[in-house]
Fold this sequence. Notes:
Elements: H1 4-8, H2 11-27, H3 40-55, H4 62-77, H5 81-97, H6 102-113, H7 116-120, H8 131-152
Amino acid sequence: MLTILDRLGDQESLDKIIDLFYQKQLEDPVTRPFFTNAKLPRIQQMQRSLLTMLFCGQTTGVAFYLQESHAHLVRDHGLKHEHFAHTMTNLEAALKECGHTPALVAEIMMLAWNLEDAILGNRKIRSMQGTLVDALRLQQEALGEADTVVKANPEGDKPEKADE
Ligand code: HEM
């Protein structure tokens, strides 16, 4: 059976959806405030990785990862159902504008709505369960620490001198 990613077309089609979705999140007065201090290129990169895995059918660990990465928004900024519902409307509009079939849009929306409890922490998920989270965490570290690594070693690795 074809995965959602296969049916979307290719990685470029997914990138187009993510760009349009974020444009709508930033235009929407209900969701915009959450992104005031957020590093958008980084979030979009993480979204891209997460959705690629999710749309290939890899769901292990997704709920825990999303619970952890949105917990501070629930705790400190009052993220709740109203914001999630607007986010879903924005995602659906982006999918439709990209020209995807009603059946595919409905399937993706069902998947996205199923993540609400995890994102809002309505039902505590306690374990990491698997490798997806590990892969995303490694990527997160790589993105977050790229500057530090470059600054710490500006000249790059020098070959060790051979004994003379
Ligand atoms: C199905 C729904 C959602 C998915 C799949 C999703 C996915 C993601 C991903 C993958 C990240 C990057 C996490 C990381 O840094 O490792 C992220 C971060 C973020 N998301 Fe979501 N998200 C969803 C819903 C929402 C909603 C409803 C809001 C608010 C209206 C929101 C606001 C944010 C913000 C502000 C960040 C950046 C957090 C930070 O770095 O401090 N997300 N999201």
